[in-house]
Specification:
Layout (H helix, E strand, L loop, with lengths): L10 H21 L6 H14 L3 E5 L2 H11 L6 E6 L5 H8 L3 E5 L10 H14 L3 E8 L8 H11 L2 E5 L7 E2 L10 E5 L13 E5 L2 H10 L22 H32 L12 E2 L5 E4 L5 H10 L22 E2 L5 H9 E4 L6 H22 L1
Helix pairs in contact: 1-8, 2-8, 3-4, 3-7, 5-6, 8-11, 9-11
This protein binds pyridoxal-5'-phosphate.
Pyridoxal-5'-phosphate binds next to helix 3 and helix 4.
Length: 383
């Protein structure tokens, strides 16, 4: 019998690393330093080397990784932070949690990432209204591909805004050979299990080349501590990464570069097999995606049928994201630049993600490609 196709297969990687991860966890049980143990410091050093940045501050989640720099810059009530609406909720949630106002900006139709010219227009709009003070931009590297950092950074510099890269889905992605930390003041990432580099629980990290910011965030993640544990110089969080998660990540990081290659191979195979029947992803020129998702576009009216046909052929799919953030109840009070986000709204009706992980294998992928071709055919005939 053939193996069922997993949307994201964590079991293959677990089986591959089982002995090493068991031993790594056992070492933590032996030394007993469950909070801020030696693995945490080692992981931070290795992540800094990997990300080509001076500093890495590990933390408890990708959401905390977005909150920490906002808090460190004292961004709060009365401040505007520009974010895409076509993203996971945490991007805007972090802004709202610190009391600032998310201003939703549209994305580009081909890369699904922040549109630099709409961003500039949104900043001008907020400045013109004079009610909020623009402070920062959070650019999301959606589905693993880098945002247009050179263009976004230029807009930030012109307006004196900080730039955060939400690389929760894209740790390891590059643009012209550089990772997001080359342009962004802070890079936030997530180690949620299903992300390209995931741990076995929640985890995250912020990277920066600014040592003062890093120190500030280290204090914030530990209840705002000062020179020692019992001195509190600011109100902070409990946002530390568990030592056990750091130990797991050290083992996974060792094979991560190879896994990124494997994801690239899988993405190329999808493009070869599918670009004639659906709109396959386009990566920004000079960009390299981590392929957190392989998301294609179909006609809005055909998506449900297409997904059902794939399901019937044993291929799971997912919709990221069916409802953009500016249309969610939680973000009703926020600002929508220009009043509507036509590209975001169209993408939300047309996107569908196919199974994607490093261990798809030629045979499994051939089955998916065949099922997609067949499903497109059947769906078109029914339309
Ligand atoms: C997953 C994700 C986050 C949040 O990460 P958590 O570790 O789940 O808190 C933030 N932004 C984006 C774009 C994400 O995909």
């Amino acid at each position: 019998m053939t193996k069922p196709i997993a949307f994201i297969d964590l079991a293959s990687q677990r089986d591959r690393l089982r002995q090493k991860i068991d031993a790594a966890i056992a070492r933590v049980l032996d030394h007993g330093a469950f909070i801020m143990g030696p693995e945490v410091e080692r992981l931070e050093a290795e992540l800094s080397a990997f990300g080509e940045v001076k500093e890495t501050v590990s933390c408890a989640s990708g959401t905390d990784a977005l909150i920490l720099p906002l808090m460190a810059w004292d961004i709060g009530p009365g401040d505007a932070v520009f974010v895409p609406s076509f993203t996971f909720a945490a991007t805007a949630e972090a802004v709202a949690l610190v009391g600032a106002t998310p201003v939703f900006v549209d994305v580009l139709p081909d890369t699904f990432n922040l549109d630099p010219s709409h961003l500039a227009a949104a900043i001008a709009q907020v400045n013109g209204q004079g009610q909020l003070s623009p402070k920062a931009v959070i650019a999301v590297d959606l589905f693993g591909q880098p945002a247009d950092y050179p263009a976004i950074k230029a807009v930030c510099d012109e307006n004196g805004l900080k730039l955060i890269a939400d690389a929760a889905q894209a740790f390891g992605a590059t643009l012209d050979g550089c990772q997001a930390g080359h342009w962004a003041d802070a890079v936030a990432t997530s180690f949620y299990p299903a992300k390209p580099l995931g741990c076995y629980g929640d985890g995250g990290a912020v990277q920066t080349n600014d040592p003062t910011l890093a120190d500030h965030m280290r204090s914030l993640r530990m209840h705002g501590q000062g020179a020692n544990k019992y001195e509190n110089i600011r109100v902070g969080l409990n946002a530390r990464m568990d030592t056990i998660q750091a130990a797991v990540l050290l083992e996974k990081l060792a094979i991560f570069p190879q896994e990124l290659e494997m994801r690239d191979v899988a993405a190329r195979r999808y493009a070869d097999g599918l670009s004639a029947v659906v709109q396959t992803p386009r990566v920004l020129e000079g960009g390299r995606s981590t392929w957190a998702q392989y998301t294609v576009l179909v006609e809005a009216g055909e998506r449900d049928r297409f997904a059902a046909e794939l399901q019937a052929r044993g291929v799971p799919t997912a919709i990221h994201y069916a409802k953009p953030l500016h249309q969610q109840l939680a973000f009703q009070g926020c600002v929508v630049a220009g009043g509507r986000l036509p590209v975001t709204e169209e993408l939300a009706r047309r996107v569908i993600s196919l199974p994607m992980h490093p261990y798809l294998g030629t045979e499994g992928q051939d089955r998916i490609v065949e099922a997609v071709r067949k499903s497109v055919e059947v769906t078109r005939m029914a339309a």
